[in-house]
Amino acid sequence: MAFTSLRYSDLAQLKKTNITSKGIDLYTVKTSDHITININDYAQKILDKYSEYKSEDGRLFPVPSAQKINDYIKMAAKQAGLELEVVEAYYIGDKRYDEVHKFYEIIGCHDARRTFVCCSLALGIPATTVMKWTGHKDYESMKPYIEINDDTLKTEMEKWNGKSLKHEIIRAIDKFNEDKLKKVCEFVNSLNAEIA
Question: Could you give the number of structural domains in the chain?
Answer without folding.
Answer: 2
